[in-house]
Design goal:
With about 400 residues, the chain is α/β, with parallel strands linked by helices. The chain has two domains: about 100 residues, Enolase-like, N-terminal domain (Enolase-like, domain 1), CATH 3.30.390.10; about 250 residues, Enolase-like C-terminal domain (TIM Barrel), CATH 3.20.20.120. About 35% of the residues lie in helices and about 15% in strands. It has 13 helices and twelve strands. Helix 8 links the parallel strand 7 and strand 8. The relative contact order is 0.16.
Amino acid sequence: MRITDIKPYPVWIGSRNQLIVKVETDEGIYGLGESGLSGRELAVIGALKHFREFLIGQDPMQRGRIWQELYRSQYFEGGRVLLAAQSAIDIALYDIAGKALGVPVYQLLGGKQRDTIPCFATASGGTGEQMLASIELLWEHDWRVVRTMPLSPRDLGPNVFDPRASIGYTAEWLTKARERFGSELTLGIDYHHRLSIAETASFCQRMPQGTLDFIEEPIRDETPEAYAALRQMTTIPFAVGEEFASKWQFMPYIERHLTDFARVDICNVGGFTEAMKVAGWAEAHYIDLMPHNPLGPICTAATIHLAAAVPNFAWLEVRVTQSENLYYGQSGVSDVEALFPTQPMLDGTVFPVPDTPGLGIDFDEQRAQEHTWRFWEAPHWRRSDGSVTNW
């Protein structure tokens, strides 16, 4: 069996693009992958075109060797763009291998360790009252692990975020959420690297101990020493790693225990080949995976297989719940069911682990060709004083 083509399909679904990658072979078996670099799909497509030139004619079953060739056979190796392309290809190659051997992908990773994949949901709303109402809705549908987002006491205007205005108000309402829903609720917050060390410490210290079970990405991750300093200021567990594009980026966070949950993104870190190495490394340090999953059905399907195969797993992020649906966005219109006629479906608050060969997902290539890519740029946020801040 030989690779005959690599086809990228950027398709707009819900509120953003999804970059689907199809790897074809001369035996008619194909694999599907997805890139995780939202908002930079054209850059990833350019990388895929480079990779395609030397991958055509290669044996798709040689996944590990192909991973090394994609990463090492260039002077400027690595980086988020190249690894996003490499991730999609690697996922597709595992899909091909599973289909060729007639087994689910998790069988290629050591077999199934669990029958269902527990998930966490995200509460919506920008005010305290809206957040509590969203958690209430999720609670009524049996969600017991809920992540929240930063709140603001007032409307500061479009694309304006003021950390100091947010932290006291958000801490106050998270305390109310813990009081209202009690100890059965696992409660976290994603600050999306919008704070400084001092701001994060101030935020954490404003709540009674035990209010939060995790805080996700409170500060940027380029400097591990910053998380080491922050670790001395709070006991709240950290969830870090969704932006990491290799095991090497995870290295200081695992070795120095600067994260308590590894937010590995299989569509950015290097596919199954690299994600399994991160998982094993994290297991040796008693760190559970809490995968990043804000993309499409292929990312979800791939992460389900990863989660099924590893022993050290906490919860999978899911963004299609009673509180939100990224596949539909604000328009309420989506073609996701038609584009992916077979895709993972939640059973309550868990995903059943499939037993079909490969990833267990299908994609309507003809319909995808009718879609047009849309330019989408992540919000460019600023503070009240006009200076640039993180989204």
